[in-house]
Sequence to fold (528 residues):
Amino acid sequence: MKTNKGLLSFLAAALFLTAAGVTHICAQTTNETFCLQFSGLKEVRRSNQGTLLKELLKAPQTQTVQRILAQRLDEEGLISFFGKGPINTLLDNEIYIQSVGGDDPTFVFAAKVGNDEANRRFEAVRAESSDKGTVTTEKNTVNKEETWVQKDEATGLSKGLAHGCGWLIYYTWKGEKVSENIPLDLIHGKRPIPALGTNNLTLRANVEELAKQTGISCPIAQNVSSIKLNGWLQGENVKTECRVQLKNEVNLIDSNWQFPTNVINDPLDHLSVFRGASNWVASQPWWSQIAGKTDAPDQIFLYTYDIPFHTMLVFNTEDVTKAVPTLGAGIQQWLTKNYPSMRNPLQQAVNTNKLELGWVGWPILMPTLRGVQDSERNYVMAATVPAIPKGKLLPEETWQAVSSDKDTFFYSWELTGQTLAQWQMQIPLFITELKNVDKNKPKTPKKKKEDMTPEELKEKAQKDAVKKAKEKRTSNVFAWAYITRDRLGNSVTKGHQTAPNELFFERMSTCGLSALELWFLCEWLADR
Fold:
């Protein structure tokens, strides 16, 4: 199921760009709703920092994925104003995108794609509407800069396309004169946008206004006011930071950490911990459906072992003897109501010798719910399989890293490559099994080629070609994911509450993305 494809596409592209790192913050314009500025992958490769990322960028599979990204952006129509077909050089050099709202709304997408590509694109777009608009060609200049402007008299909205000095710029505005927000002097070799240093990217978004401006339904716009993200290449890694302004005040750091130190043990690939979760969990419709009167947990611990398909979720509860059977019954009712026709129906099995129950019927996975105790504290453990690997308890340094800053409400550590492999195995299996299928739907017999009409044969050939191309793309994406796993090191992400309505996230990683974010990126690139 694919929803909000345009938003997901843009977020995926922004996530890919984030991996390049950032150092400079571009000046903010009044009424700005969105700004992204990126210096290009060539600058990343020239840097003496971010050595692990640069090794990843050298791989032939990465270059293939860069072309696939250009194809996906083209397919989603996100750069349709630059004409048809992917722009394979889009990420090589500088990109500047800005959207401004208010009484004088503007939008600009400027990409330094090279003189040949910019000129070809400009001429191709013009050829589609050669009888419209006004073309202005600069005289006595080496680059022969050109602009093409069209105006909609009914709405007063003007749109333009310009090229010069390797830049290709699409822009829109209202009014008689081109807005000062639009950096047209780029095509003359000037810098109307902030000068970029090495390995530079910034992203800002006024989330609510951006959702209104684009008409895209964005769930986070209900709670988030604005986002500012930056980062930089540091040593062998990428450092990223993100500041989030909330619409309402929250208190995520009121409770003291209560670590299940005697429950979670090595060897782990991933550990994420979160406190202050109770209000958010309680507000989710699914919690009231499955939990009954069970209090929402305040602290949640998610971890993955270095054994395939072994993922655990532990959360605190006051009365574990009531919580486990209540949640078990609620989950069973939720499954029956929402997925009455699963391919492999789940049946609940109860272990009468201990506080444990599970669901059988799926291949490989056997979701399990049990009660566990650590000192005097009670927890509920949800697991993908019933077996708990044996190993040493986590060192005290792990928990100290979580609690060293008093304002930390979120902490995540992972071996990104190994964790990506886990998500690639587990998430598709859940998606495949957790859906309804029509088992009574009659199978349509396949028509033999000799019985097909010429039109049917042509249609079949076209479908087969599309299918083959998509399979090749998927193969290339996951070949890249496979070689990426061996090149990714540790990733550490910390979330701090720095004010009643402000959150601050920081991450040190190989490529700027976590394993889960990489999984989403791969799925979008493969268009699955």
Summary: Residues 454-485 form the longest helix (32 residues).
